[in-house]
Amino acid sequence: MDADELVFFVNGKKIIEKNADPETTLLQYLRKILRLPGTKLGCGEGGCGACTVMISKYDQERDKICHYASNACLVPICSLHGLAVTTVEGIGSTKTRLHPVQEIIAKSHGTQCGFCTPGMVMSMYTLLRNKPKPTEEEVENIFQGNLCRCTGYRPILEGFKTFSKDEPCCMGSKCCKIQPSNEEHFLDAAEPCDFLPADTTQEPIFPPELKISNGFGTKFLTFKSERVTWLRPVFLKDLLKLKSKYPSARIVIGNTAVGLDTKYRKAHVQVMIAATHVPELHEVAVADTGIHIGGAVTLARLGEILTETIKNTTEGGQRNAFLDNTFYTRRGNWNIKSDEIVLSVFIPFSKKNEFVFGYKKAQRRENATAIVNAGMRVLFEDGDNIIKEMQIAFGSMSETSSLAITTARRCVGRKWEDQLTSDVVQWLAEDFHSLPEGIGGQMPYKRALACSFFFKFFHRVKLELRKQSGMEDATVPPRHTLTLPSLTRSISRGTQVFEEVSPDQPKHDAVGRPLQHRASLQHATGEAQYCDDMPLIDGELHLALVTSTRAHAKILSIDTREALALPGVEAFFGHEDVPGSNVKRVLTVGEEIFASKEVTCYGQVIGAMVADTKTHAQRAAKAVKIEYEDLPTVFTIEEAIVEESYYPHEAKALIKSGDVERGFEQADHILEGEIKGGGQEHFYLETHVARAVPRGEDGEIEIFCSTQSPSKSQANVARALGLPMNRVCIRTKRLGGGFGGKETRSTLCSVMSCHHVAYAVLHRLNRPVRGMLDRDEDMLISGGRHPFLGKYKVGIDSVGRFKALDATVYLNAGNTSDLSPEVVSVSLYSFDNCYHIPNIVLTGVLCKTNLPSNTAFRGFGAPQSMLVMENIIEDVAVSLNIPSHKVREINMYNENDLTPKGIRLINCAIDRCWNEVIQQSEFFQRKEDIAKFNRDNRWKKRGVSLIPTKFLISYYNERFLEQGAALVHVYQEDGSVLITHGGVEMGQGLHTKMIQVASRALQLPVHKFHINETTTSTVPNTTATAASTGSDLNGMAVLNACKTLRHRLEPYIAGNPGGSWEDWVKAAYMDRISLSATGYYKVPDTWDDSYVPVEGEQTTQRYFTYGAACSVVEIDCLTGDHVVLRTDIVMDVGRSLNPAIDIGQIEGAFAQGYGLFTIEQLRYSSEGRLITNGPNTYKIPGYGNIPVEFNVSLLKGASNPKAVYSSKGIGEPPFFLASSVFFAIKDAISSARAESGLKGRFRLDSPATAERIRMACEDQFTCQCSPSTHHTRPRFIDV
Fold this sequence. Notes:
The structure is a single chain. Helix 18 (710-721) links the parallel strand 31 and strand 32 (728-732). By secondary structure, this protein is of the alpha+beta class. The longest helix is centred in the C-terminal third of the chain and has 26 residues, at 1030-1055. The chain is 27% helix and 22% strand.
């Protein structure tokens, strides 16, 4: 059969595609064919929302235009026939007119790296198209499919709630919306300003052709590619014929299942049948006994139509199948014949005396599959509480949905009395006694959830029975009442407090003003260009990696013949094809670019395939056949300890101070313990990407790449190609997030895997090449935060004061040492946190395992060791029965104290932050309120925790990195200023701050400045943008360059004091004065040349950033769920260069830290393969996880003479404050355990997942859910 033409509209433009490929997604088509890069590729599995667009269709039946927010990465273009697509480019632009949604997210400081912003904009835009005045709740709910790794979500919600009909502005009559227009726009976000009002008459018009023509939805369509046929019937009989003719065909509605199966389960579907236009599948019929729901009805449509009455139902040629244990035969398979479809689902109405409730527990509140879900139904005899019928169904307890058949049968005839719950717990154990690990493992927890769900169901039904006449005896104890509902959130809210600049500060001086991110409007309109947004040029190639499928093995052979024969494939590159050195260097350690003889982790790069398209390259990479000889593996810290598998011990992995033995002798109490913590994925929204372009002579190569360390990338590239560094130019415009993951592993992923291959391609093919890792590839290869194990022995006196501490921190480094020696060093530097310990020995051990190499991550080892320290505090408090905040206070550092590493605390603000957060959070009143709440409730508990933090802003042992450089040009024609510096913009607002520094130094308004990109051809030998030093190093360099320029211009300013900047610049140019200056800065070796240090004291120019947080949580003891009710933070940032950006960093760091300590969990298979390799399996915090009330204050009157304009580094220091949630959870668990008579210390490892919370709240249910006795090989590894 011949293929049809595909017709749809994009941003009002008609698209006619004559060769529509069913395997092409809308995202691919937008970016590569239509060149609309505003829609981003974040995950490729519909889990992050970066690719959100609006799809509109005309509903003939309802005579209504319907708008849907859709994930373009999962939408096949063939499904778009007769539809209209709107992207972020279609609603507004900085070149024409901004849409209010775009303006508000920018001016509300709702963007940082900006990669997720177009998706956020389109989700909100779609909501407004459907409901111009949404409620605050609707605004918060609309983003359940959108993720952000930078902002912490609060400013996004705060900005978009201004569209809500019930949003009361906290500014009252001073609200910026009702202020007169301000003519001066050089400080847009600092002064009250008007937002553009939402005007529905200015929205893009739905294409009239799609309304007038009736043919788009009534024609049988066929689309074909080289591998797949797409068929779209419009009649039920045709659909059934196609299903019979192609029994293995997949029926597609939204493509969420088929798309993921194709990507992750390597399923190749030859025939796809789109059932989207078969009318019978969209019917919803309300009958006397229930509702028939068509098989293709969306949940959104179902919600709308439940209030309608549809009287016509389809009759004939049908059979009924009950959704019981015989319907789901195995995962992904149902009891449906090859020529059958699901026409509809019938949901009966509940009867008199019948109660039905559902339950679900997931890893995250929104957009997460269930750990366990349940549906429970009971029917009673008339006028009695005797059970007539009972059904209990569970999901995720095994490979299929499961009915508790034995339990339900035994319940029949029983009375609905308390003894029933105990019996059901026993019976459920029989129903599920032989379960294997099941989907996702966690079987003890799942069994506990099953019992807990029934307990909730039992009491909920009891309450319902009590409402009926004659059932007044069916009472529920008051302390159980709150047990019934799941934890709920109120609408989020918060405050941000900072010092305003002095009224006397000149308006052109931007330092200290809360300017919006310099590129925020470009983020919001999709105009901000990231590496993969660059348009393809003629002849450009794509590469895909060939990675190991063994954790430790010898490579016996590599067969590429089948792969090279595939369409579009150009070449394979391996270790033999690297023209220079196949070894890249991180610090002083080398590791192979391409594995040559042996692989040491699952996912190690062996080679790469290069082809004309990314799809062809990826297919070829999968077709490469590699033969291995397996070798022994080590995955966990515990295994490494047994095998003594360590990286060489170095002196910097040991810190000693005082006399530990004497300290223990003086101690009144000695405690020992340990705590373990998991790793963390960076989950930057933009994965590793690079693009290499040959320049045609002398081997010159230009590389556009996503890296935090351009000079490291340059050096590794040059070494791999055997070229001098002056032939290699690295260019970085911006990153879509970094967090440390693009510092050295970008040279491994982008540079090594993309760059190095790219350069080899150039060498042999002399054509441009680009590579961008898919999300699962990036997570598999790039590594993350080091998992840790902390063991400690602590000596204390009777009031909890430290006398001695001996602690060891084990870090799981992975298959190479990478930056791990520095990470363990920082971990030990930071171990003490905010506490003075007179006698201390700290040891760091790097475990060598067969996991992908772990690397830099925000905090760089400090969060791991500081968690151990705070856990020691908690153990001391419990052991001595002293409030933990008292133990912290009695041991807290004071001004001029020395740390164990000999750093003197100057301008120590720990006590100020601590006391202010106590006052701000009303800590003592909250403790009383929490105690009362816990007395009144058995199964829900609250907890509170106060945590301080101290973070050293330094490169620690690598002093040579503490330098920065800048180049500043002034153009004589108009006086505009171009700044180039060595830092990389990755969302932290570095470029914005550099412009603010320059504005004060040159006494110019910010609109005179521009920063283009970071490039090694203008600023060489750059220090990686990391360690929270970006503003310090580069800010001082920019300041020094500007001082030079200002000094050169002084004679012309003095000679013409009434002149303008442009006049002075022109005069200097005419006088042949250079208008270009370099700036350089290095951290001084001493903070005071006249100071005489004591023995062991360091005198380097280093400082600490301080802060404190208080968090209140509520946990559901029956499920392990929790909600953060409130968090207060007070942070010492010195004199902030930009309070809005600094508060954004605090909120974003807190959200990321919250993920580490509560919900983010990496899981590996028993073969060492990462299982949690995308947003569907690895959950970062979402909108529903942020504190309900989130208050952030910058410490007033703070100063820091050791950094540019008295500011402080802020990227990493707030991260650890999220542990206040962890310890608040532990506090709540303690209250729950007390109900069971359990007192004293208990172990809670990080992250405090729902499973760990539930199982730590030991009770009558958990004690009957011990681990299975089946001695099968575990499917999952907890590292």
